Amino acid sequence: MGQFKTTWQHIRRSPYQAFAAILIMFFTCMVAGSFIIMAYASDKILNYFESKPQTTAFLKDDIKSEDVDSIKNKLLETGKAANIKYVSKEEALNIYREQNKNDPLLLEMVSSSILPASLEISAKEIRDLQILADIAKKEPLVDEVVYQKDIVNTLIGWTSSLRSFGFILVGFLVFVSILIILMVIGMKIAVRREEIEILRLVGASRWYIRWPFILEGMYYGFLGAVFAWGILYLLLIYFTPFLSSFLTGIPLFPISFMLVLYLLLTMIGGGVLVGIIGSFLAVWRYLKN
User: Theoretical Cys-Cys bridge with 133: which of 127, 138, 147, 195, CB 3.0 to 4.6 Å?
Assistant: First the structure.
């Protein structure tokens, strides 16, 4: 308890320095938490698209059932196809009617005879769609393959860029946070040089002197993380109705309690670790002897 009391006294004596350290930790944890949420959301979106038919192979009218099975087997043998569904002409007509049920004129002009049968292909990994599409295109009884290549590649590229940018930005902010905490605690050590010398003269151990400063860094990291999590949680609650309507069909909302708890523990753990590193470096630099 004595160490915690000393730590609290250090913070009270220099509130502006403490505020600066907590503020930089708040921004670091805020950015890190935001990118964790965005990474989670992008994974959910990718998984959603992976579970849906992403490639459609339209078949020629004279194709036979054994030919359909042959094409399906070739695609399944790659080990990259998650699901392949055969859609007959009649099923295609039912789908067309459902999509255009509000336009009677379009319904009168179309019959099952003019609609092609098709294979709806889902990949285990969205990155494998190109391979499956190329295999389907080589089949002589496949008339056309529809593959949203630009959309898929854009989604994959956006996700990869988001993660790379987030990693670099968070790394930079962590580095700045460590430097700020090192400077703040270093200045406090310099101001209390005489007090530290007196403690040494009366027989205080090195760790007895060092622990209050290390606890102070942990305190900055903890508070910055908790405040950042609180703001992120409020923002999630506020934007959930809009995002739910915008991402209709994607099982992203509501955010589970376990995810929110995991985010809190991760941010606190990261913030406290950064605080420990910054304060330990300050103690190691200024209290070597």
Answer: 147
Give the chain's mean pLDDT: 77
CB 271 within 8 A of CB 177: no
Q: What is the rounded distance in angstroms from the CA atom of residue 113 to the CA atom of residue 126?
A: 33
Q: How far apart are CA 280 and CA 18, in angstroms?
A: 16
Are the C-beta atoms of 204 and 2 separated by less than 8 Å? no
Q: What is the bridge-based pairing of β-strands 55-59 and 118-123?
A: antiparallel
CA distance 245 to 239: 10
**CATH code for the domain defined by 55-147:** 3.30.70.3040
| For residue 254, cis peptide bond before it (omega within 30 degrees of 0) | yes
How close are the terminal C-alpha atoms of the chain, in Å?
Answer: 25
Q: Going by C-beta distance under 8 Å and a sequence separation of 6 or more, which residues neighbour residue 179?
A: 278
Domain range list for the chain: 2-48+154-286, 55-147
Label residue 249 by pLDDT band (50, 70, 90).
low
Binning pLDDT at 50, 70 and 90, where does residue 268 land?
very high
CA angle 87/121/82 to nearest 5° reads 125
